[in-house]
Amino acid sequence: MDKREAAHRGGARHDAVDDSLRARLCAQAEELRARFGIDVEPLAVPGVADEQLVALAGSVAARLLVVAALGARPQQHGRLGSMAERVVQSSPMPVLVVRDGARFEAWARGAQPLRVLVGVELTTTAQRALRWASALRVIGPCDLLVTQVAWPPGEHLRLGLRAPMPLDHLLPDLEQVLRRDLEAWAGVLPGPGETSFLVQSGWGRVDAHLTQLAAEAQADLLVVGTHQRAGMARLWQGSVSRGVLHAAAMSVACVPRGDAVGDEQEIPTFQRVLVPTDFSPLANRAIPVAYGLVPRGGVVHLLHVVTRHPGADGPDPQARLHALIPPAAQGRGIETRLEVVTEPDAYVGIIHVAGRLGVDAICMATHGHASLSQLVLGSQAHAVVQRARQPVLLVPPERGE
After folding, report:
1. Distances from the Cα of 331 to the Cαs of 22, 286, 296, 327, 347, in angstroms?
2. For every one of its 401 residues, what pLDDT tens digit does the chain have, with 9 covering 90 and above?
3. Are 295 and 381 members of one domain?
4. Do residues 99 and 140 both lie within one domain?
5. Parallel, antiparallel or unpaired: strands 65-68 and 272-276
6. Are residues 244 and 285 in the same domain?
7. Based on the domain organization, do 122 and 35 belong to the same domain?
8. 385: domain CATH number?
9. Which of 50, 85, 129, 302 could join 255 in a cystine, given CB atoms 3.0 to 4.6 angstroms apart?
10. In this structure, what are the phi and psi dihedrals at residue 372, rounded to the nearest 5 degrees?
11. How many domains does the chain have?
């Protein structure tokens, strides 16, 4: 048998396989049409599965790419992991990796709500994942468990807590602050179904905690955000997305960060603003600006950080702060709360208080001249900007000051 005849027979077998595959696809499409009353288009596309799936989904502007959890391809050309994992790594749209389709069918029929655990950290990527999970309620009721895994030493340090740190749980005061911030960050999640929040202390890998919590909650779906990387970062070392894909017993949805320009952006409002002062005229310039940021019913926290021995700053700091409240504040319906803390560095006290109070923004004066007081030094303002989780509004001095 010559090469031409072999190639002909090989091509005939390939066509036969394609015909068989197309027949199976058409039969499955017809079954789905009859079962769910939806439009189904069967396609058989040659090529590498994960690459073609992502390309095809992009060509039709798909909003979701669904793949089965099982499936593999020989490791070559530096590609790592299963087909589902490679799809998640490269897909620009959310990917649903299904392990138990029966639960989704029951939900789609209205037989039961979908139990969804959303693993978050307070970032834009996680916010997009949460909004995606919440949007599932358009299809049917979803019970959302919004979950944050917190590392106790880091949170104690961030908030400047003085109490001894337990190793196996969060202090009640710390858990209350973290839960408050989580609920405020999540905002209102409309649609049918219950919404609950969980802050869980955790050491080690976050993905291990999320998969365990999802199993304990008997979740049907675990949703996480994913940061897509290129080059060596495709190994996903330490990736939460990769970890839950491998370890979760339930279906997993991975929502990429996406293009923020194309996403609907919420307009923030400042209900609580922190304004620090060391009582110098320059620092006090930020106070009226802070009151201008909040609407009626808002709160301004006036803060003084004692950086030396208490009493070294002169008269009672509380009384001095009270004297700085603008007379028009009460008439505008703005509440003032006074805060005095002791820290070796002013910026440390500002960051700690901002975290504990859960303010929406920090408003402070800034100046680059080292001859001026500590609080308004450029280095102090820079340190706050670098470390704060909230927006920071810097008020410059007038010309000549």
Report:
1. 74, 20, 9, 8, 31
2. 454 544 444 444 445 557 777 888 888 888 888 887 788 888 877 888 888 889 989 988 999 999 988 644 444 433 334 788 888 888 999 999 999 889 998 998 889 999 999 999 988 889 999 999 999 999 999 999 999 999 888 888 888 887 788 877 888 889 999 999 999 999 999 999 999 999 999 988 899 999 999 999 999 999 999 865 444 334 333 478 888 988 899 999 999 976 443 455 678 889 999 999 999 999 999 999 999 999 999 999 999 999 876 655 567 899 999 999 999 998 999 999 999 999 989 999 999 999 999 999 999 998 755 444 445 446 788 889 888 999 999 998 876 55
3. yes
4. yes
5. unpaired
6. no
7. no
8. 3.40.50.620
9. 129
10. -90, 180
11. 3
3 and 103 together in one domain = no
Distance CA 379, CA 377 (A): 5
Return the structure tokens found at 31: 């079954």
Query: Which of 191, 224, 256 corresponds to the end of one domain?
Result: 256
Q: Domain for residue 61, yes or no?
A: no
Bridge-based pairing state of the strands 361-365 and 392-395: parallel
Are 347 and 274 in contact by the 8 Å Cβ rule? The answer is no
Q: What are 332's two structure tokens? A: 């505008």
Determine, yes or no, domain membership for 53: no
Which pair of tokens denotes residue 340? 């005095």
294 and 233 in a single domain? The answer is no
The answer to whether the CB of 136 falls within 8 A of the CB of 192 is: no
Q: Give the span between the Cα atoms of 195 and 133, in whole angstroms.
A: 11
- Quick one: 225 and 308 in the same domain? no
Identify the bridge partners of residue 377 per DSSP, sorted by sequence position: 367
Is 312 found in the same domain as 223?
Answer: no
Residue 83, domain member (yes or no): no
- CA 164/CA 328 separation, integer angstroms: 43
Which three-class secondary structure state does DSSP give residue 39? coil
Host domain of residue 8: 1-44
